[in-house]
Amino acid sequence: DTAMASWDVAVTTPEGPLRLLAVHPFPPTDAVQWAADHATIREAARGADLIVGDFNAGPDHAPMRALAGIRLRATTELANEGWQPTWPANGQFGVKGIPLPPSVQIDHVLIGDRLAAISTRTLRVEDTDHLAVVAEVAFR
Q1: Which positions ≥6 away from 65 have C-beta within 8 Å?
Q2: Which of 40, 115, 26 minimizes the C-alpha distance to 71?
Q3: Which helix (DSSP H) or strand (DSSP E) does residue 10 occupy?
Q4: This model's pTM is above 0.70
Q5: Percentage, residues of the chain above pLDDT 70
Q6: Residue 3: which of 79, 61, 78, 56 has the closest Cα?
Q7: What is the 3-state secondary structure (H, E, C) of 18-65?
Q8: Contacts of 45 by beta carbon, 8 Å cutoff, 6+ apart
Q9: What is the C-alpha to C-alpha distance for residues 94 and 100, in angstroms, rounded to an integer?
Q10: C-alpha to C-alpha distance for 56 and 5, rounded to whole angstroms
Q11: Is residue 28 within 8 Å of 34, Cβ to Cβ?
Q12: Non-local CB neighbours of 98 within 8 Å, separated by 6+ positions
């Protein structure tokens, strides 16, 4: 129940059930709503195996550090893939008419202890101002 819609999905796999959250909290342009959405995500995240989405927060923001505190880690970190900026990606944001390249990492794939991160990469997607994050994960 976030302002921009999020989902809690039970996924059946050959290795067993998987709990997936797809999230999209409000951006930090409204700090109160942003914090409330992240609190909702953090509460729902307990026991989740995989959380994906536009978190509207970078790895160093407090809400992302709080998720690490409940044993959810970024696939980019675990796969040793480094910084992978995802926004802005469509040239609509710029400085003095010069489009900014992707420079902020706000889209993430987080995993719990049952999964291992194999690799991650970003991918351009039509008609969006974000790059997609593609992560390969496996059961441990």
Answers
A1: none
A2: 115
A3: strand 7-13
A4: yes
A5: 100
A6: 56
A7: EEEEEECCCCCCCHHHHHHHHHHHHHHHCCCCEEEEECCCCCCCHHHH
A8: 21, 51, 67, 70, 72, 110
A9: 5
A10: 13
A11: yes
A12: none
